[in-house]
Write a structure and sequence with these properties.
By secondary structure, the chain is an alpha/beta fold. The protein has 12 helices and 14 strands. It has an 8-stranded mixed beta sheet with strand order 13-12-11-7-10-9-8-14. A 6-stranded parallel beta sheet has the order 3-2-1-4-5-6, with helices on both faces.
């Protein structure tokens, strides 16, 4: 399967590794900064047959890839995806799928109309720990789910934002919730039933005066099934990343996943006693080298299979929209000081330009 990558920045190595491990034919890479492409080509010893482009539209026209991964700054995801979809390319779109609900809807509509597969790159759904928890949810081992919490306690310093001028801007990124925290926010919504009634949120910019968006977000989420979600996300932790954790509390079960990116089961307690908690904790434990984890490779495998078998990807564009919608609802609630009912009809990060000025 012919594959191309658009965007050769911070996350691109995970995409290249996933493509190589899944035996995709990498025909081209693209970046507006040629040095970024040269760096990745050297790092992964890509052959000279892998063409390099600074214009992704030219790349699509000439190389005609079947699958394109989009790993640019967030604000460009939607435009690039829509252009690729119109050319008949299947897409893997790095999170967030877009920065506005209208763009997310446009991606969903275009993919359905053109008959291509679109995957939102929420790779943590493929963590061994997360998959084990999901099985427990689907088998109703928790009984009634009472509530869940997502904590993302990370550090991002001045140097991080200096390395890319789009980071922390409303037009191209959003803040901590949209960039660093959306993976765990996606997991919380997915585990607790997806269907949300209302959201109450607060956001602030406490420690990064040089960015436009928030570095702290706190929210309470009410689900239609009666469960509640609590979200705490920040990039203000000193002096380095502390943890990313997901808790689920139910009538008959308690689970905690922690580690760098919810890749370790730390608590596993169920009334049915179907498995040994210590064995589960030992078996579903990964130690990735960074917060991106190991999920890109199985995500790619799933998308390839989805294309071949003409089925939806495990994490489709609609799932990407749901994660985006929850973050935007928190932003809207924080801005208005009121609870926000879902579904949202229209909202975008650019609605909040000047929020902390």
């Amino acid at each position: 399967m012919k594959y191309a990558l658009v965007g050769c920045g911070r996350i691109s190595p995970n995409h290249i590794v996933a493509a190589l491990k899944n035996n995709l034919e990498i025909v081209a890479i693209c970046d507006v900064v040629p040095e970024n492409m040269a760096d990745k080509a050297d790092k992964f010893d890509l052959p000279e047959s892998v063409k390099r482009y600074t214009d992704y539209q030219e790349m699509i026209e000439k190389e005609k890839p079947e699958l394109v991964a989009i790993a640019t700054e967030s604000g460009k995801h939607a435009k690039i995806a829509l252009n690729c979809i119109e050319k008949g390319c299947n897409c893997i779109i790095e999170k967030p799928i877009a920065l506005s609900l209208s763009d997310a809807d446009a991606i969903i509509e275009a993919a359905e109309r053109k008959g291509v597969k679109v995957c939102a790159c929420h790779q943590n759904r493929f963590n061994k720990s997360v998959q084990q928890i999901r099985k427990a949810v689907e088998k109703h081992r928790f009984g009634r789910l009472f509530y869940g919490t997502a904590h993302i306690r990370w550090c991002r310093d001045h140097e991080y934002y200096d390395r890319a001028c789009w980071r922390g801007t409303w037009e191209q990124d959003g803040g901590a919730l949209m960039n660093q925290c959306i993976h765990n926010i996606d997991l919380l919504r997915w585990m607790l039933g997806d269907d949300i009634i209302e959201v109450i949120g607060m956001t602030d910019r406490l420690n990064h005066p040089y960015i436009e968006a928030e570095d702290l977000g706190i929210a309470l989420v009410r689900f239609s099934n009666g469960a509640y979600g609590i979200i705490e996300g920040t990039t203000d932790i000193y002096p380095k990343n502390l943890e990313e954790t997901l808790y689920l509390f139910g009538e008959k079960g308690t689970v905690k996943a922690g580690g760098q990116s919810v890749n370790v089961i730390e608590e596993w307690r169920f009334a049915d006693m179907l498995d040994d908690p210590e064995e589960v904790k030992a078996q579903f434990h990964e130690n990735p080298p960074n917060v991106y984890g190991f999920g890109h490779t199985p995500l790619y495998a799933d998308v390839i299979e989805a294309i071949k078998n003409n089925r939806p990807p495990y994490v489709d564009a609609k799932a990407g929209k749901r994660a985006l919608e929850l973050v935007l609802a928190i932003y809207q609630s924080a801005c208005t000081g009121k609870s926000v009912k879902l579904p949202l009809e229209r909202c975008a990060t650019t609605d909040f330009i000047g929020r902390f000025s």
